[in-house]
Design a protein that fits this description.
Layout lengths: L5 H132 L5
Length: about 140
């Protein structure tokens, strides 16, 4: 059977002394290094999460800015288009007025020329009719 003697107590004392010595020399520094590594990894993960969140916030702000810029661009483009249409209508209106004014001037000139031509034709017709009458009657008509 198992005998309890001084060697068992001596071995137990050696094991306890080794545990205390190794605890201070090996185990505690090893556990401290493991804890530091765990803290460092957790800190890096936390920093990575913060950077990811910051990146998402910046991307969202960028998307919002782009949307705002596109909306502003669309409104500016629409405003420019409206101004262009208004300017086009104004130019067309002026061109129509100028064309109508020119047409009226031409109508007036044509009317004046036709009146002058009619007056000249009346005079020629009167002279011609006097000549014809004078030739038919054989005498001069005044």
């Amino acid at each position: 059977m198992i005998e309890l003697n001084f060697t068992v107590i001596f071995q137990l004392a050696i094991v306890l002394i080794l545990m205390v010595a190794l605890s201070g020399i090996v185990f505690k520094p090893f556990l401290r290094v493991l804890q530091e590594r765990r803290d460092w990894v957790e800190g890096a993960e936390k920093k990575a999460r913060e950077l990811q969140q910051r990146t998402e916030e910046l991307m969202e702000r960028h998307r919002d800015s782009m949307s705002t810029a596109q909306a502003q661009g669309a409104s500016v483009r629409e405003e420019i288009r409206k101004e262009g249409l208004a300017r086009e209508a104004e130019i067309l209106q002026k061109a129509m007025e100028e064309a109508n004014r020119f047409l009226e001037e031409m109508k007036g000139k044509i009317q004046e020329e036709s009146q002058a031509a009619r007056a000249g034709l009346r005079l020629q017709a009167r002279n011609l009719s006097r000549e014809i009458a004078a030739k038919m009657l054989g005498r001069s008509i005044q």
